[in-house]
């Protein structure tokens, strides 16, 4: 089983366990909203663009609200089943793994880390390596809106990635999964060490990061 499929299975099991009204790390969203979002991005090609394109966002929100209004178990089951074969995810070989490994990993953690008593997962070494490669490759995109310079340092290794070339810079150190979550704007729930001027660290913690 690919890691994209494994994360899909894990998040849908957790969504089933928690029900529709549990909190998530996505501002203003309960688990029912997150499940609806996952259905829209995979099954509603007409509305998916509004996730990233601002002027299309009102239509996307309307479609997502319609999906959320459906029975919760039905929506979660559509997430579990994955995208239909006629969608890009079904038609383009490798697209599911290329895109959904990170998408489902981050949203799985959005649900996990919004609950009391969470702890970071111990990940297989190859998944940990994959997360580092993705965050290092996309670092300049993820941190493009950072008001300060940023260097990412993978804990326990000599690996580093320049995310934003500016002075002063903050060095963010942690395991790959924590750096990925930090880069996707989950700063308050990523277990990392931050080294830099206190005011620069504060600005970075409050910045809007991610895609």
From TrEMBL:
Pfam family, one: MDMPI_N
Signal peptide, first to last residue: none
Superkingdom assignment: Bacteria
Domain Mycothiol-dependent maleylpyruvate isomerase metal-binding: 6-82
Listed GO MF terms: metal ion binding
SUPFAM superfamilies the UniProt entry points to: DinB/YfiT-like putative metalloenzymes (SSF109854)
NCBIfam families: maleylpyruvate isomerase family mycothiol-dependent enzyme (TIGR03083), TIGR03085 family metal-binding protein (TIGR03085)
Protein name, UniProt field: TIGR03085 family protein
Native organism: Herbidospora galbida
């Amino acid at each position: 089983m690919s890691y994209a499929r494994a994360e899909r299975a894990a998040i849908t099991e957790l969504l089933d366990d928690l029900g529709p009204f549990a909190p998530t790390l996505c501002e203003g969203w309960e688990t029912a909203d997150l499940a609806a979002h996952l259905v829209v991005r995979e099954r509603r090609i007409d509305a998916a663009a509004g996730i990233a394109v601002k002027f299309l966002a009102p239509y996307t929100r309307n479609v997502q609200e319609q999906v959320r209004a459906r029975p919760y178990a039905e929506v979660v089951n559509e997430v579990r089943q994955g995208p239909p074969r006629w969608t890009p995810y079904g038609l383009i070989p490798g697209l599911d793994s290329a895109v959904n490994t990170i998408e489902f990993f981050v949203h799985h953690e959005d649900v996990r880390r919004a609950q009391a008593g969470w702890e970071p997962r111990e990940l297989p070494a190859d998944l940990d390596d994959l997360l580092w490669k993705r965050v290092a490759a996309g670092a300049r995109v993820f941190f493009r809106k950072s008001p300060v310079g940023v260097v990412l340092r993978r804990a326990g290794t000599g690996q580093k990635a320049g995310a934003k070339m500016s002075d002063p810079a903050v060095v963010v150190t942690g395991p790959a999964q924590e750096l990925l979550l930090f880069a996707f704007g989950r700063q308050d729930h990523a277990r990392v060490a931050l080294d830099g001027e206190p005011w620069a660290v504060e600005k970075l913690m409050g910045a809007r990061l991610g895609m």
